[in-house]
Each structure stands twice: as structure tokens, then as C-alpha cells.
Amino acid sequence: MTLPEHTPQKDAGKGPGRSNFLKSLAAFALMGILAFFSSSRFEEISKRLLNSVQSVTPSPASAADEAAAPPAPPAPPVVGHVVAIADLALGREYIGRVEPVQTVLVKPRISGQIESIHFKEGSLVSEGDLLFTIDSAQYQAIAQQRKADLAKAQASLSRAVKYNDRLKAADKRSVSASDADMAASDVEQSRAAVEQAKAALRLAQIDLDFTRITAPISGRIGRAEATRGNFVTPAGAPLTSIVQTDPIRVSYAMSDRNYMEQIGAFRSSGAVFDAALTLVDGTSYPHKGERDFEENEMDAMTGTITVYLRFANKEGALIPGSMVRVNTKPVKSRTAPIVPQEALLADSSGDFVYVIDENNAAQRRGVSLGTETGTYREIVSGLASGEKIIVKGLHNVRPGMTVRPNYPSADQAAKSPSELARESGYDLLPISGGNQTGAD
Hints:
By secondary structure, the chain is an alpha+beta fold.
């Protein structure tokens, strides 16, 4: 079947075909305009979407780096300590020397031969006891002679007084003035002669009394240096010695630092220390000591001052010259925080410690130090009672670092450093590197 041919002129004149062509042309033009105006915005949105996808999805290189990075090191273990308040007025021990309160060297006051000895060597004597007798025959004779001289002087005085009285009673015209004056002068001279004779007799009596040598104090007497029959003189050696043993002194040397700590108490008139003694055999002396006095100057060579205590010694257990241990405790207490000295560090900024806060973080804290008390040190300022500090393991600690503290008990505190190290592990970190083996 043969279709009829259509000419272009005829088809173009038809209405429906032309309308569809125009609609398609308008649609393509609109899409081109929209694409032109939205191309830059679309590119920006695409880039943002691409970046977000790349950030969420790691690249193979970054994933490998994260897999190779080591884990964060664990908190280092340390040994902690809780700051406590202590009484720093602690007792101290000194080496003391027993000294007598009084020591007397017995010497003769006159020359003569020892006639007898009346004491037992090493015994206790009382004041006034007879010790030695010197031959007194010569001194008795001298005393008798002085008595005769006194009697003669008294007789001369009596005669002079009577003669002077007669001249005064006579008629003044019969007595010359010179005779009257002479009689009065004789009376005065006779009276002076009497006083002189009395003094000579007194001296003779004293020398006679010195033939009996008595104990000047109570105490323990020593050896007799001169025995019966020896001739002694005042210029010679002592006959013996006596030391007072009850009460008795104990002296010891206190350092200038300890003295300055208690200088306020020393300046007062009351007691400074509760003092007790330990004898050489280790036993405690039953009597407590009392403050006696202190020297008035420091020893420039040793930097110490000598302190004296007085003790009762009725039993004679304290022997002069012996050594004892003096245990003293200040009467007034002085409390302050103390820390182990191994917890203290120092640099150019001063002394400091590491304080463990509530989050177990180590915080540097500056402190002011006071006196030493054994292995502890007084903290004047910077710490309060109850705060926690690091004592051991400080070589692994830095400010702000989190730590794992271990607070040893009283039993652990008595253990050796190696035992504490094995328990806490604080010293194993440098050896094992990042592998922690310490206690939790």
C-alpha cells in the first residue's frame, strides 16, 4: 500500500506538530539557565559533602599510625604519708658529769707534828667532826705566856689608874701640870697594853684550837695524805679532801641551738626541764633533778653552754666525777606539723613537697622548714595536719601528674626500704619502662 507523500510546506502549516516542538525548546532553555546559576553552589555543597565523608572514613595511612602509637603510660605508684601534728618539745639525751656542790681541801692552819687521825678514809663525815690532832704542847705554852702578859698589863693599868686618881685628889698647887699629864698618859698606855695582851692571848688560843682539825662541811672524806708523826705546815700539801655528796650536781653541755629554743624558759626562775638520770649500768636513778643554774657564757670552742642540775643523793649512788646519761624533756610543750625528711625537695625557688589532692594528682607546695627531730622535720608553714604528701617515688613525679599512692600502715613503716619497694613498686618503673608491676 502506498502512503501519500506530504510536502514540508503542507506539514508546517499544521497546528499540533508545531506546538510540541516549541514546548520542548522552552524546556531545554529553562534547564540551561538553572544549570548556569546553580553550578557554583552545587560545587560548594559537593566539596562539603566530600570533606565530611573523608573525615568520617579514615585513610589507610592514618589508621596505620593509630595502630602503631603506644597506649598512655599508667599512673606511677608512690608511697604517701599523712601529715600529723607532733609535740616537738621532745626529750633529749646528754652525757652528764657528776660534780659535788662543794669540795674542800683540808689543810693545816699551823705547823706541827700530826699526833693522831680520827676518821676512816672514804667514810661520810659531818661538819665539825674531828679529823686530825697536831701536837699542841708548844701552842699551850704560848697561850699560857700570853695569859701572863695579859695579867701583867692589867696590873700596870691598875697601878696607873690609882696613881692618876691620887694626883687628881691632891691640891692642884702641889702637883705640876706635867705630872698630871704624865699620869693620865700612863693610864691610856696601860689600857692599850691590856688590849694588846688580850689580842695576843686570842691569837695564841686560836693557834691552840687549830691543833684540832675538824671537818668544815659534811660529805665523803678521801684518803689521808699525811699520817701520824708527819710534820705538816700551812704551805704544804692538803691533808685530805671532802666532797659534798647530798645534794649533788650533774652538769652537761647544751648546744646553743637547743638553748635558744628554750631561752624563754631559761630566762624565767621556774623549771625548764623534767630531768632524769640513767646510770652507767643502765638503771634509772630514782630521784628527779631540779634546775640549779646555767653558766653565764657560751663556750666559744664548742658552741655549748653548761647546764647544772641538782639531785638528792642520800644513798650515795652518784659519785663525783662519774658519767651519767641525762634525759631531759621541756616542761612546756610545742606542737607543729612534721614530715619525713625524705619527702622534702629543694630547688632555686626553695623547699617544697608534693601534695596529693582529692584526685590523686601531685601538686607542688612550697614549705618553710623548722627544726629537725630525728628523721622528721618541722614544717613552720605550708602544710596542715591531715594533708597527704609523697614520701617515696618522687623521681617519677611531675607537677599535676596523677599518681597511685600507697599509705603504709604502722607495720609496713617498720619494714626495710627493699620490702616497701617490692610492695609499692615505685622503684620498678625505671627498670620495666612502661610495664607497671606495682601494687594497685
